[in-house]
Amino acid sequence: MNKKLLAVAAVAVIFAVLNLASRAAQSGPQRAPLQALVGSSACIQPQWPAEARRYEIEGVTTLRFAIGMDGKVLQPAVTQSSGWRILDDAALHSIAQCLFQPKLDAAREGTVFPIQVAWKLDGPPPARPLLVAGSCQTSERFAAFREADPRPSDKQGILLRFLVNQEGAPVRIVAEAGSQPQELTAQAVAYLQSCRFAHDPNSRAERTDTGFGRVLLR
């Protein structure tokens, strides 16, 4: 399979941080903007995890963080998930590496800064395999599989990502279980394994063997 290049849609984390943080932290003309308080090498560009690249998943991770008196990042946390834990963890790791100047006013005041990291594929959307109508087994617990639905797992459904083999069967399924019990998540994976997928023969987009969506609960 030809893999497309991947890139973080946002500029490097440092610039996103500074753009948001300087507006949030400035309270008057006497306060220096945070651009002057951190070097360009003080944060690292978010790195796509190899597994996320393989599954071609996208999303936006929203974070918050504070700055300690020593200039280190304190209490970084995800306030809104991308839907994919692997991307959220990578965003958390990158912001945790930032280092600001020590003894900032923002540190004394306990200012909390927001930041978003956008994870987006380069180029046009790939042609993912489509669910073959009526191929999923009948289930008393699950109503259907809704492909390309990126909403996080909840009481209505469980988010899964997967690859599709040459026979059209989903393999290497990964569940984003959220608060759903392990037994129910395993059953959702087994349900998806009964489904079959195929590419639209009329699509001219570059084909991929990756897919995602939600198994819907009854």
Automatic annotation (TrEMBL):
SUPFAM superfamilies: TolA/TonB C-terminal domain. One of its GO terms (cellular component) is plasma membrane protein complex. Gene3D superfamilies: 3.30.1150.10. Keywords: Cell inner membrane, Cell membrane, Membrane, Protein transport, Signal, Transmembrane, Transmembrane helix, Transport. One of its GO terms (biological process) is protein transport. InterPro entries: TonB-dependent_transducer (IPR051045), TonB/TolA_C (IPR006260), TonB_C (IPR037682). NCBIfam families: tonB_Cterm. This is TonB family protein. It comes from Duganella rivi.
